[in-house]
Design goal:
This protein is mostly helical. The chain has 3 domains: 225 residues, Alpha/Beta hydrolase fold, catalytic domain (Rossmann fold), CATH 3.40.50; 271 residues, no CATH class; 147 residues, no CATH class. Helix 12 runs antiparallel to helix 17, helix 13 crosses helix 17 and helix 14 packs across helix 19. The chain is globular and about 95 Å long. The chain is 57% helix and 6% strand. 50% of the residues are buried. InterPro entries: AB_hydrolase_fold (IPR029058). This is Integral membrane protein.
Length: 785
């Protein structure tokens, strides 16, 4: 393997005699090098156990035998699946799901040129939304540990007797023990949310060192004169080390300050009563003032600046990264000492002020989403894109779903713990009423979603019936098979559901915003749970409110159980971890720009890997390279091509199949994969061909405007390859959908055309006229490029 590594990237100019390379990049879910290279004997030539490039064993020294590869390329496979579904700690990433979703929303802004301040405002609003999610998660932990356990249950004799492990905290059971005072109970319970904050900090720091600290290639920035120049071609795009470190410090400080307020605020409220101790009252005001100043500092750090992409920014704000969390930790320690001070007359009664805290967070999140929608609309209006999802409002819609997901997770944890602690349902006041109101809006939201799904199902069935004639027309002269025709037509119709996802997301987000606003108003105006607030009204209203409350509590409990079960199974079972890895493949492609506790961006490792491999090969051989990407691998291939030097980019051919580049990324991320960006990629690489099927729910055409469209997109591939039984296919051929593109003869044909176009010397001249360029194919036919 050592010899293979030495030869793979530094083969020298002797390889200019014609050796070509085909670099295969797999898609979501991952695969093995054996499957990609169709050979049980493979060897790793560069990389490590996380991500590496493999060859067949017989091709390990291909550079030294160029005469053996004159008519065929050297196949290599880049395997990156362990970046998202490796060891068992990936199961912990489920806890970070809301953070991942809000980070995705950051990259969904509409395309705009020359509106730098508006673009920066868009990023700022999402960083603030991400900060509220951190505060929400830590506040939920405080609600469970401080309010439900330490304040309510430990302060109630009946509850403490049911949970003997709380005996030393109970004033009645411990006979006034040292830990039984409310302030000391809160100080001890604060270890839980503080440990959660520390865990988030540790996970972010560990992944930051593994992902964001990967060194990209040094190169000069491309000219910014062309407004179509893709942002993904900037040298520092995949190197967000500085921003993530700064945001990590701010979010860690925010979490610690949230815990400090949860301990100090009840004590300060007790000290402010008439006749309270003046020194403690003064100390409480001073401590809360310092916490408010810390909150302002955290907000200032988050608002300070966004990403630096034009150059590779290797600087690090070391003083800020260290001092801000340490200052917040110092305030937490002071809050623990202040809250634990002896107050003989202090008793715990009712709830802590969680309703105000959760209500304030929900209000801020709603206002941020509305402001984000206004900014996104202004950006979209300045440069309309008819293909952009939800008319440019995809980011605000997804941000709303991230906030809702955070609220559901917080409410689910609080309600399940309350039910567990209070077996009879009578001894505790339970969680804040706002969390119950939020759970109560889940049933009507599910009704809206189910109605939309039913409408989509009916539309799909109608479309499937309409597709039957088209299926039979694609196979003229063959005996009809009604059952097979229906299956093919249904596969085509169901593949179109992907294109209707923006409508589903838009309606769900709008309903979530309206129902969430109603829950907030109801909780703050009545101060009671929905069932109690509806008493005295019409019977149908009271019944609906009580049903929504009970059903919402059951649903949120079921969701919490499924969440814990799934996480536990993913921790122990590698196959389940790979299933979750598919979600991370899509959700963690983007750098952490809005939330530092989101799962790490695997592309900050994968894209530099591919860029280095492509650059070293083109330098060594003069350039005969086809990078072949399936599904998400095509997105990585495009991103890596953008990162090459312009001269190397012109020596690379791109073959994509089952690609979501336009269908998903172009619509949902128009600023980075919109028509202008994809058109520039087509112009800058030597040649680009794209394969897709009408039965594929993920891949689709690139849809470049004008003559460039047919030059990139081949006509839809037949699926299945044969309709009926033939001499070559005596058994029915399967409907492949998103898989096995390499089994189609069109794949080998297009790969051959790309390799025939590329030459060891300078790249073939590009056609710049009105018609698509015609290049000779390996079989003597002509191909467009």
């Amino acid at each position: 393997m050592k010899k293979a590594q030495e030869r793979s990237g530094t083969g020298g100019r002797d390889a200019r005699s014609g050796t070509a390379l085909e670099l295969l990049v797999h898609g979501v879910g991952g695969t093995t090098p054996t499957e990609m290279l169709d050979d049980p004997r493979t060897v790793r030539i560069t990389g490590d156990h996380v991500a590496a490039v493999f060859r067949r064993t017989e091709d390990a020294d291909a550079e030294s035998r160029p005469e053996d590869y004159r008519g065929r390329p050297v196949p290599e496979a880049y395997v990156w699946c362990n970046l998202t579904s490796g060891n068992g700690t990936r199961a912990l990433w489920l806890l970070l799901l809301p953070f991942m979703v809000v980070n995705i929303a950051h990259w969904m802004r509409p395309a705009a040129h020359g509106r730098i301040r508006t673009v920066r405002l868009y990023g700022l609003l999402l960083r603030l939304a991400g900060l509220t999610l951190t505060v929400l998660l830590v506040a939920a932990a405080c609600e469970v540990a401080l309010d439900l356990v330490a304040w309510q249950c430990a302060g109630t004799r009946a509850c403490a007797e049911r949970h003997s492990w709380l005996g030393f905290l109970s004033p009645a059971l411990s006979e006034g023990g040292w830990w039984s005072t409310p302030g000391r109970r809160l100080a001890l319970a604060a270890a839980v949310p503080a440990a959660l904050t520390g865990l988030l900090w540790y996970l972010s720091l560990r992944t930051w060192r593994a992902y964001e600290s990967q060194q990209p290639m040094d190169r000069e920035a491309d000219s910014e004169d062309d407004p179509r120049r893709a942002a993904l071609s900037r040298p520092g795009f995949w190197y967000g080390r500085r921003l993530v470190a700064r945001l990590r410090a701010a979010h860690t400080a925010a979490g610690l300050l949230t815990v400090a307020v949860g301990v100090a605020a009840p004590a300060a409220r007790f000290d402010r009563r008439p006749g309270g101790p003046a020194p403690l009252d003064t100390l409480g005001w001073a401590l809360l003032g310092a916490m408010a100043a810390g909150a302002v500092a955290v907000a200032a750090v988050v608002c300070r600046r966004g990403r630096s992409e034009r150059l590779i920014d290797r600087t690090l704000d070391e003083h800020l990264v260290r001092r801000l969390p340490l200052a917040a930790l110092l305030l937490l320690v002071l809050a623990l000492l202040y809250g634990g001070w002896s107050r003989p007359d202090w008793t715990s009664d009712g709830r802590l002020s969680g309703n105000t805290a959760f209500g304030g967070i929900a209000l801020v999140q709603g206002l941020l989403v509305v402001a984000l929608a206004v900014v996104a609309h202004l950006l979209h209006r300045s440069r309309p894109d008819v293909r952009a999802a939800i008319r440019g409002l995809g980011g605000p819609a997804v941000a709303m779903l991230a906030c809702a997901l955070g609220g559901v997770m917080s409410g689910g944890i609080a309600q399940r713990v309350a039910d567990w602690m209070d077996g009879t349902g009578t001894s505790l006041d339970g969680p804040p009423v706002l969390l119950t109101w939020q759970a109560s809006v889940i049933p009507p939201l599910l009704v809206v979603v189910l109605l939309m799904c039913a409408a989509l199902a009916l539309h799909t069935l109608r479309l499937a019936r309409a597709e039957r004639d088209a299926v039979e027309g694609d196979h003229p002269g063959e005996a009809g098979d009604p059952g097979r025709t229906r299956r093919i037509a249904l596969a085509r119709a169901m593949a179109t559901l992907t294109d209707r996802a923006p409508l589903l997301v838009a309606i769900t987000s709008a309903a979530t915003l309206l129902l969430g606003a109603g829950a907030l108003v109801g909780a703050l105006t009545t101060g009671e749970v929905p069932g109690e607030a509806a008493r005295g009204t019409y019977a149908v209203v009271q019944g609906a409110a009580q049903t929504a409350q009970d059903l919402g509590s059951w649903l949120i409990g079921l969701g919490f159980i499924l969440f814990v079960t799934w996480g536990r199974r993913a921790y122990k079972d590698a196959s389940a971890r790979r299933t979750i890895g598919v979600l991370w493949d899509v959700g963690t492609f983007w750098p952490r720009a809005a939330h530092p506790f989101a799962p790490p961006c695997y592309a900050e490792r994968a894209v530099p890997d591919l860029t280095w491999r492509m650059a070293t090969w083109t330098r060594a051989t003069g350039g005969r390279l086809v990078i072949s990407g399936h599904s998400q691998g095509s997105v990585l291939a495009a991103a890596a091509s953008w990162q090459l030097e312009p001269s190397a980019r012109r020596r690379v051919a791109l073959l994509t199949y089952g690609s979501p580049l336009e269908r998903l990324y172009g619509r949902w991320f128009p600023a980075h994969f919109g028509p202008d960006a994809l058109a520039s990629l087509h112009e800058e690489v030597d040649c680009w061909r794209n394969l897709y099927r009408r039965t594929d729910p993920i891949g689709g055409p690139v849809r470049l405007p004008g003559d460039a469209g047919p030059a990139v997109d081949r006509a839809p591939l037949k699926d299945p390859l044969t309709y009926g039984r033939t001499e070559l296919h005596p058994l029915p051929a399967p409907i492949l959908g998103h898989s096995d593109y390499q089994a189609d003869p069109a794949f080998a044909e297009e790969r051959g055309r790309l390799l025939a176009r590329l030459r060891p010397g300078l790249p073939a001249p590009r056609h710049t006229g009105g018609a698509a360029a015609t290049v000779p194919a390996a079989d003597g036919t002509a191909g467009d490029c």
